[in-house]
Write a structure and sequence with these properties.
Blueprint lengths: L4 E4 L4 H14 L4 E5 L12 E3 L5 H11 L3 E4 L5 H6 L1 H20 L5 E3 L2 E2 L11 E2 L10 H20 L2 E3 L1 E3 L1 E3 L12 H11 L3 E3 L7 E5 H13 L11 E2 L3 E3 L1 H8 L8 E3 L3 H7 L4 E2 L2 H7 L7 H16 L2
Helix pairs in contact: 1-7, 4-5, 6-8
Length: 316
């Protein structure tokens, strides 16, 4: 009998691609997509439910009725938006996690995925590189909530034997969804501007190097860690994962190979201050060792794939 999966926040940037990939692998009928509003992008065939991760009673009723095996909790308010609404961000990011942890503790499903972020780290890292156990001193509301969530995931794993799994996403680049309020979203928006032949105004410094990842690699990492044997998951807070690091200037140079006349301006704002507090590079040796993680996309392959897919969407 195929396992049944629930994706909370399925309409979000990562949730969209994750839902499509899970449905391809497990069968559309076995993956229930959910969000607080109807999706604006296609989630493929398969069931969709309006579900609020902050409504614990509603969640409890739903899980009992549908016999879910695994939950992917992708609900979050991202960094730039969270700075504008700190209390709302804390409520959403933390209580959506608490609800799923408590419902897992009650035995309503067996396995939980919850994403963390490189935003948990702060400035002052040696060689500007975050290793798995680097001191975490987040400077943003989003980073604070993610670090707190990591500690709670580990607590529930140790105290209540909850099978919780997590990875720290770098900046994610995707062609499926529009930018969603994250500091690294410049690396998505810039492709849309290039195709539209509109000059891009970048809110980060041209040399602000950050860890990034193509969506296909992010989904691969998410599914791989959930498929790994429980015994191999030795970290129950959150794993570092990495793919590549680049600056806006390096990304712009690569894009100009396809759009030679594309123009860019640099006008750093508050988001550049958030980015300054994050590492430029991530060491993910622990994930490689424990569950054989390995990224596939370098910068040139990423840029080529983004333009190919965006052009295909435009001509549909």
């Amino acid at each position: 009998m195929a396992k049944k999966v629930l994706v909370l926040g399925a309409s979000g940037q990562i949730g969209t691609d994750l839902t499509l990939n899970l449905r391809e692998k497990l069968g559309a009928e076995n993956v229930i997509a959910s969000d607080i509003k109807e999706p604006q992008v296609s989630l493929g065939d398969g069931p969709f439910m309006l579900l609020n991760a902050l409504d614990r009673e509603g969640m409890q009723k739903f899980l009992k009725n549908h016999q879910i095996d695994e939950v992917y909790n992708m609900v979050a308010m991202l960094s730039a938006t969270a700075e504008k609404h700190p209390w709302k961000a804390w409520d959403l990011n933390m209580n959506s996690l608490f609800n799923t942890l408590e419902l897992q503790k009650e035995g309503l499903f067996s396995k939980l995925f919850w994403p963390s972020s490189i935003a948990v780290f702060g400035p002052g890292l040696k060689n500007n590189t975050a290793i798995q156990n680097s001191v975490a001193e987040p400077k943003t509301v989003y980073g604070i909530s993610k670090l707190s969530g990591e500690r709670w995931c580990e607590y529930y794993a140790k105290q209540y034997n909850c099978d919780v799994r997590s990875i720290r996403y770098p900046g994610i680049i995707s062609y499926q969804t529009e930018p969603g309020g994250g500091t690294t979203d410049y690396a998505v928006d810039i492709f849309h501007k290039a195709i539209a032949n509109v000059p891009y105004k970048c809110f980060l410094d041209e040399k602000r190097t950050l860890p990034m990842m193509y969506m296909a690699d992010a989904v691969k990492a998410t599914m791989n860690i959930m498929e790994a044997n429980s015994e191999s998951i030795r970290i129950r807070s959150s794993y570092n994962i990495a793919a590549l690091s680049f600056s806006p200037q390096e990304l712009y140079t690569s894009i100009c190979k396809y759009f030679p006349g594309f123009e860019i301006q640099y006008e750093p704002d508050k988001r550049d201050l958030y980015a300054q507090s994050w590492p430029a590079y991530i060491n993910d040796d622990q994930a490689k060792m424990d569950w054989n993680w390995e990224a596939e996309f370098n910068l040139d392959k990423l840029v080529e794939n983004m333009f190919h897919n965006l052009k295909s969407l435009i001509h549909q």
